[in-house]
Specification:
Strand order of the largest sheet: 11-10-9-12-13
Oligomer: single chain
Helix content: 40-55%
Number of domains: 4
Distance between the termini: 44 Å
Number of strands: 13
Strand content: 5-15%
Length: 798
């Protein structure tokens, strides 16, 4: 037996040596044919074509870039880009690919960050970090530019082996989210092509048209030139200078305020709405920390987190133009205008307070905003986050991660969010209470990126202490025993539609939209200042996607506390008896640790409600009370009734929202539907979202065991919702009745497949790309500010 085992080890080693030997031989052959690989070969070749108006520049902008964006970027963007090949910018294409996965929840030590435009700035630096080229970096000849280019070889392989003429992909294709990645270098490509003949690009999607392929191959053959960007306009530069001047004021008061604003906006895309054409996508900017002040080139400080020690005596907050194609999964547009900056002036500059010294950047301080920014008024901090509450909450998925189940299997699939008004949060007593709880409200990010998961016990204990202290404060310290009523909810100052939010979870990605969308949900949150701040510093400012398993695990476990805290705040408006029963229905089949929370040992629920109820249907009545409170600031963007389809069509579509139970379970997370109107007007888009029900959402590893399929349901919205479509539907308005009837009859996989046969644009459909272009065009025309390319890595093979 041992001899057999040894034999197989030798065979395995032999295979490895043969493969590595083949790669070595291939490299020697390439060196002989086209010279040694060196990034400087491309630099010298492209410099010769460096004018913005050159034929090569115009060819790229007008013909090449649209193909790359519409056919490549839809899979190759952000951290979940296969092989880390980000094709959203020339710099990303020049950087190339890397065999390591960014999403790796079991690594013992934190990985080295490899963030485009931050951690390295040229091809040579990326080669030293383990990235290999996908463009030719040898002699710049037409033949070498295709024969020594991974990108050219991938495109050619696809043309040689297009998708089989079948409805579904067979076992030769793996479209699972966490599929193994091959990531061949040019030296390894021949072996890859033999073992994966259908592995050309675009992978598991239709091939390019002959013209598209010809354009890209012509571009590659001539050196794959990508022009430098034109500078921003003088008018925009003046706006940038003005905002940078504000953020970099010299007083201690302004330095602390600038730090606070930066740490909350570092993941957003700022734009100047007063200088933008509402019909065209504007120039976006990132706020970065720089070693250099305004007027000098930006020298980005490449820290893991925005609150890490910058290593310089003075930090400057600068606006760096966004240099990548806008993709929806990472896009958080944030309008800058006079009305907003006047508010910043009022909250941070004109307010009556003093800053005696700037806080340190030590992890124990920087990771805890209640400590770092204790000198800033709570009113300023809370109002700043509330003003764009959607952006604040949305950062937890679009900010540092793009996607990630670690942060998301801790929330329900759909819930509503309300906020306590600033006047309450900023009261002297409550501000003092927050200050007294700084130690209990410490966050896992203080352990940095290589943390020990056992530290979670300490944070659990502190959270329990905080919850008990909070309930005691509510029972004893509030004036005249007053408890929160509907009057304590924020109404958006009667003008801000960020007053309420709906959060949708789509397994490992999520969407946050303004307003109360869909039917009343199972759970809701009420968020106060301390909770909103900790959500941001746990999941946005403090989360490191390159962190080790301990860091990611502690983040996931701590988010349990924050979710339950938000839910408890909502339940506190109910009568004590009703809130205990409601909580138990939210947490069925609880673990022993969860039972302690549900039964009140960690979170006692003995304080009375400040609301007098008229019925025994407490939650239903509370939703109605809250709805009346916030009715004047409810947006209508996603309402089906606002569609321009005829009345009967809208009524038919409304019936889709009644699908529930096992029938809903068969549907994917996100189904995007294009309806072509009878009157010949532009097609309209709708999204059907599946909401997966759970007995509870506290299970770390066995989510399936907690699924409550009989209570699954769906939400239908007008417009595109979500970044990762699972399936596309296409229907003529005249056929809506047939589509709705077929959808209502789905009881099993066979029914669903038959439905797709009639209405789906599958990933194998011949006109897939034509449909994709039309969909993205409609998205951009209807909402050029928030629109971004969708990601096709979740498209089903059903």
């Amino acid at each position: 037996m041992q001899n057999t085992h040894t034999k197989w080890i030798k065979i395995f080693i032999g295979v490895i040596l043969i493969c590595s030997g083949c790669a070595t031989i291939a490299n020697l052959d390439l060196n002989k044919l086209y010279g040694n690989e060196d990034p400087s070969n491309r630099v010298s070749a492209t410099l010769a074509q460096s004018t913005l108006e050159s034929p090569a520049s115009l060819f790229y902008e007008k013909q090449v870039a649209p193909i790359i964006e519409g056919r490549c970027v839809v899979c190759h963007a952000c951290y979940d880009s296969p092989c880390q090949l980000k094709m959203t910018s020339p710099e990303g294409i020049e950087r190339g690919a890397n065999k390591e996965k960014v999403y790796h929840g079991s690594r013992i030590l934190a990985a080295t960050p490899n963030r485009l435009f931050i951690d390295a700035l040229d091809s040579q630096e990326w080669r030293e970090r383990g990235f290999y080229p996908v463009l030719n970096e040898r002699a710049q000849t037409p033949r070498a530019n295709t024969q020594a280019s991974v990108l050219a070889e991938m495109l050619t392989l696809k043309q040689q082996h297009p998708l089989p003429n079948d409805k579904l992909l067979d076992e030769r294709f793996d479209v699972s989210t966490d599929r193994s990645q091959q990531c061949p270098t040019i030296q390894e490509f021949n072996g890859y092509a033999k073992s994966q003949p259908y592995g050309g690009m675009p992978y598991a999607l239709p091939e390019l048209t002959d013209n598209e392929h010809s354009v890209l191959m012509s571009w590659l053959e001539s050196g794959a030139y990508m022009p430098a960007r034109a500078p921003i306009s003088d008018v925009l530069q003046q706006a940038v200078n003005k905002l940078e001047t504000f953020l970099n004021g010299d007083s201690l008061k302004m330095q602390l305020s600038g730090r606070y604003i930066y740490e909350h906006l570092f993941s957003t895309h700022l734009y100047f709405s007063e200088l933008s054409d509402s019909a065209v996508q504007p120039q976006f900017f990132n706020v970065v920390r720089s070693r250099t002040p305004s007027g000098q080139p930006i020298d980005v400080i490449a820290s893991r987190r925005p609150f890490d020690d910058p290593g310089v005596e003075r930090v400057y907050y600068r606006l760096q133009p966004v240099m990548s194609t806008i993709v929806n999964k990472a896009h958080q547009p944030y309008a800058i205008h006079t009305q907003l900056t006047d508010k910043w002036q009022k909250w941070f500059v004109d307010a009556d307070y003093e800053v005696s010294a700037l806080p340190s950047y030590k992890p124990g301080v920087g990771a805890n905003p209640l400590t770092a920014f204790a000198q800033l008024p709570v009113n300023a901090r809370y109002r700043f986050m509330l003003e764009r509450a959607q952006n604040t909450i949305m950062g937890y998925i679009k900010g540092p991660v793009c996607r990630g189940q670690v942060a998301l299997n801790v929330i329900n699939d759909r819930f509503w969010v309300y906020f306590i008004k600033p006047e309450v949060a900023a009261s002297a007593k409550i501000s003092a209470f927050y200050a007294s709880q700084r130690d209990n409200l410490r966050l896992p990010a203080e352990q940095e990126s290589s943390a020990l998961a056992v530290k979670w016990i300490e944070y659990a204990s502190r959270q329990g202490d905080y919850m008990r202290a909070r309930n005691n404060f509510m029972n004893t310290a509030m004036e005249d025993g007053q408890h929160f009523t509907q009057d304590d909810l924020w109404t958006g100052d009667n003008e801000n539609d960020n007053a309420t939010l709906t959060v949708f979870r789509h397994f490992d990605n999520a969407t946050v939209i303004k307003g109360l969308v869909g039917k009343p949900p199972k759970t809701s949150w009420v968020i106060d200042y301390a909770l909103l701040e900790r959500i941001h510093y746990l999941l946005v400012a403090g989360f490191d996607v390159y962190g080790n398993y301990g860091h990611q695990l502690m983040t996931r476990l701590y988010m349990d506390f924050l979710r339950m805290e938000g839910e408890s705040n909502f339940l506190a408006f109910l009568p004590p008896k009703g809130r205990r029963e409601e909580l138990a229905s939210w947490y069925q089949k609880p673990s022993p640790e969860l039972t302690e929370f549900v039964e009140g040992k960690i979170n006692p629920f003995d304080q009375p409600s400040g609301i007098q109820f008229k019925t025994k249907q407490y939650k239903k009545e509370l939703y109605a009370i809250f709805a009346e409170r916030v009715k004047d600031v409810q947006p209508n963007r996603y309402r089906v009734q606002d569609s321009e389809l005829n009345r009967n069509s809208k009524a038919l579509l409304g019936q889709l929202a009644n699908i529930k139970g096992p029938s809903a379970s068969i549907l994917p997370e996100l189904s995007m539907m294009m309806v072509e109107p009878q009157d010949g007007n532009q097609a309209e888009i709708f999204t059907l979202v599946r909401n997966s029900a759970h007995y509870n959402v506290n299970s770390l590893f066995s989510e399936d065991a907690n699924r409550d399929y009989k209570n699954d349901d769906v939400t239908l919205v007008h417009g595109l919702l979500g970044s990762y479509p699972d399936v596309f539907w296409r229907v003529k308005e005249a056929d809506l009745a047939r589509l709705v009837a077929s959808a209502q009859q789905i009881k099993n996989e066979q029914d669903y497949e038959a439905f797709l046969d009639s209405f789906a644009v599958r990933r194998t459909t011949k006109d897939f790309w034509e449909f994709s272009d039309k969909l993205n065009q409609i998205f951009m025309q209807h909402d050029p500010i928030e629109a971004g390319l969708l990601d096709y890595n979740r498209l089903e093979n059903r």
